[in-house]
């Protein structure tokens, strides 16, 4: 990354600028470039959501205008010029996360410090919050103060939970209800696991928990949204014709236009009908709201698949670690591995 060099002001720039009469000047912004939106990570996770209950979708990440890189001699761990969508190498974290993790400030405040040009990595000024560093190896200074950083974990934890109903998909609940972290077995409660998206209080099924922030970002970003398959049981007899609006892409009562949903009617009788739905977008409580607008009463809603992962025979309320093959398949589906 190129270092900033100050130059003496010229006569042309030392005089007050002339403004056209009748036009207000746009307010100046310190820092010189637009502030990039802060990437979302598990540490920032709030009660998010999935297609059936909202929150998986978020605004696309915005990258600062300046995409510089460190001098060749300083590229041992910081990669300021690397695209945000490139694969994160083992041990790497984003610079703003490293600063916040050292207890200096919040991640948003770390963005400001970086954009102000008061952060150096291996002696070079870095003004890109998304620059890659390796804690424990790279020398990071904020206002000439050296930060003490622990090395980033070499491995992450990936867990599949069969969430039961009446459990909230959050780290903690102000109302004191059971949480998905609270029902994990003791051997999986260590570390900083966070749910990826969520299932609502009365929904059940496959839920991923991990401390891999990059994977979480990808799986909750619209660009990398993975198809999710649900088994939905509704009251009474249902015909194929009554499901046509879902297949065509319906508009909810609130005015939201939905993408077409893949729907299969598996069985139906007077008592109940079983429907398989595959969603390709993240809309707040989508399945329940579609059924509401079509006059269908949901009796059961279970997520059985997300991308390459299948719930299978995992008992309700239990969890297991993902296999190495499952992790690799999930990361490939999210665009993190070739």
Provide keyphrases for this structure.
338 residues, alpha+beta, Structural Genomics Hypothetical 15.5 Kd Protein In mrcA-pckA Intergenic Region, Chain A, Alpha-Beta Plaits, 9-stranded mixed beta sheet, 4-stranded antiparallel beta sheet, 20% strand, disordered N terminus
Characterize the structure shown.
This protein is α+β, with helices and mostly antiparallel strands and 338 residues long. It folds into three domains: 67-154, Structural Genomics Hypothetical 15.5 Kd Protein In mrcA-pckA Intergenic Region, Chain A, CATH 3.10.290; 155-224 and 316-338, Pseudouridine synthase I, catalytic domain, N-terminal subdomain (Alpha-Beta Plaits), CATH 3.30.70.580; 227-306, Alpha-Beta Plaits. 15% of the residues lie in helices and 20% in strands. The protein contains seven helices and 15 strands. The protein has helices at residues 11-14, 95-101, 107-115, 213-219, 244-248, 286-293, 324-333; strands at residues 93-94, 119-121, 124-125, 132-133, 140-142, 145-146, 158-163, 194-195, 204-210, 228-235, 262-268, 272-279, 298-306, 309-310, 319-321. The strands form three sheets. Strands 7, 8, 9, 10, 11, 12, 13, 14 and 15 form a nine-stranded mixed beta sheet that branches. The chain has a four-stranded antiparallel beta sheet with strand order 3-2-5-6. A hairpin with a 3-residue loop joins strand 11 and strand 12 (272-279). Helix 2 (95-101) packs across helix 3 (107-115). The longest helix has 10 residues, at 324-333. It starts with 10 loop residues before the first helix and ends in a 5-residue tail after the last helix. Mean pLDDT is 77; it is low at 1-77 and 80-85.
């Amino acid at each position: 990354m190129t270092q900033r060099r100050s130059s003496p002001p010229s006569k042309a720039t030392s005089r007050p600028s002339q403004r056209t009469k009748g036009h207000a000047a746009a307010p100046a912004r310190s820092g010189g470039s637009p502030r990039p939106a802060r990437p979302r990570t598990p540490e920032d996770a709030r009660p998010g959501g999935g297609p059936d209950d909202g929150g998986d979708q978020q605004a696309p990440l915005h990258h600062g205008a300046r995409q510089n890189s460190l001098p060749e001699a300083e590229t041992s761990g910081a990669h300021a010029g690397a695209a945000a969508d490139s694969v994160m190498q083992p041990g790497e974290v984003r610079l703003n996360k490293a600063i916040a993790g050292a207890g200096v400030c919040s991640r948003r405040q770390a963005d400001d410090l970086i954009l102000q040009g008061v952060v150096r990595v291996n002696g070079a000024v870095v003004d890109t919050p998304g620059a890659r560093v390796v804690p424990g190896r790279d020398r990071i200074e904020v206002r000439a103060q050296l930060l003490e950083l622990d090395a980033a974990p070499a491995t992450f934890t990936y867990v599949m939970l069969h969430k039961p109903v009446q459990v909230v998909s959050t780290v903690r609940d102000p109302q004191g209800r059971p949480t998905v972290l609270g029902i994990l077995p003791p051997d999986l409660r260590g570390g900083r696991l966070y749910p990826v998206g969520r299932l609502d209080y009365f929904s059940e099924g496959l839920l991923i928990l991990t401390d891999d922030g990059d994977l979480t970002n990808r799986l909750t970003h619209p660009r990398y949204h993975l198809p999710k398959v649900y088994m939905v049981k509704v009251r009474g007899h249902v015909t194929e014709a009554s499901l046509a609006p879902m297949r065509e892409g319906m508009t909810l009562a609130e005015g939201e236009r939905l993408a077409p949903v893949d729907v299969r009617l598996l069985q139906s009788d007077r008592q109940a009908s079983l429907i398989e739905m595959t969603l390709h977008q993240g809309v707040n409580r989508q399945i329940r709201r579609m059924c509401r607008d079509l006059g269908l009463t949901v009796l059961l809603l279970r997520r059985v698949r997300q991308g390459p992962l299948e719930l299978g025979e995992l008992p309700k309320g239990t969890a297991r670690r993902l296999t190495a093959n499952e992790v690799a398949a999930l990361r490939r589906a999210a665009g993190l591995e070739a």
